[in-house]
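Most newcomers find our protein records easier to grasp once they have seen one. Sequence and backbone structure share a record, each on its own labelled line. To make this concrete, we reproduce a full record directly below:
***
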Amino acid sequence: MEQHERLWELIAKRTAGILSAAEEMELEVLLEATPEVARQQELLDKISLQSTGKPTLERKEMLLDRIMGDIVAAENKETPPVPEMTDDNMQVSRRRWRAIAVAAFLALLLGAATMTYLRTATSPAVVWSTVQTRPGSKTRITLPDGTLVMLNAGSTLSYPSNFAKSGREVKLIGEGYFDVTKMASYPFVIHTNTVDIKVLGTTFNVRAYTDESHTETALISGAVEVTVKDAGKQHITLSPRQKLLVANVITDTVAKPAPAARTDDQKPLIVLESIEKEHTGSLIAETAWVENRFVYRNEHFSQLIKRMERWYGITIECHDQALLQTSFTGNVQGESLDQLLGMLKQTKQFDYNVTAGKVIIH
């Protein structure tokens, strides 16, 4: 895009209030490099300061004539004549964005209704990108604001190509580890089926698989506010080294501390727990997968095999009901599926065979 055309496009978008943070930085750089356009922008600002009250249609036309006249005069004074360009599309496009910039300025004077129309007419449709990870794989993503996301196996993350000035919003199904870029004026919100998680800049893990009984938010540093969608919009703020588990079907609206000892089936519908380090040192079970470690603590086999399916990219069937209710604890890294099954058999004996890419346990 020709430089002047891009400048007027960005000026129009800033005046209309639809300029992204990245575009704001781009505009400042271009204005510094193009002082004649910067002075034309100052003309708009100057007239804005001189104008008071809501203008009539006649006043609107006078303002338009004055602005366009000042811009043309500034161009004739500040830049020498040049031969007429032969690219008609370039000329029309530049005039179009300059007109939009002026229209945006007038819209600010005329009120919110005009501004709403202007935004609808000039703002392009938001384009969303979706990243999916297959079972047995993980991926790293850098979002438009610089936020880093590690996406676990069998997960989906959707995000816009450019974040809106009102905030940064993404959608997650599955599990993701987020290191959010700090931007105090632009909150970062993760939408899942069960909860919305709002942050300003922090590090945390979200586990929101649709085939699991709970959605888990584990905060490593910073602060997050979790809104439980189906619990009267209850807001719960987490401190570092806390995690919140919310049942994927909500009927209770009270966040309760976890009991000293319980099974997965006895969990309250909303429970707040402390994050504990593993005995091995600094390892945290909730984020161990980021370091390619498979950690399970007092976990029912019925839940464990779901994680194993995603981790190894294989289907597992278990026909032993007693085994499904047995709890396992362990910490492995780099072991094959066969090696892990062998370790689990040391806790409770079972037999299995692999047929056509499927593990059958009996």
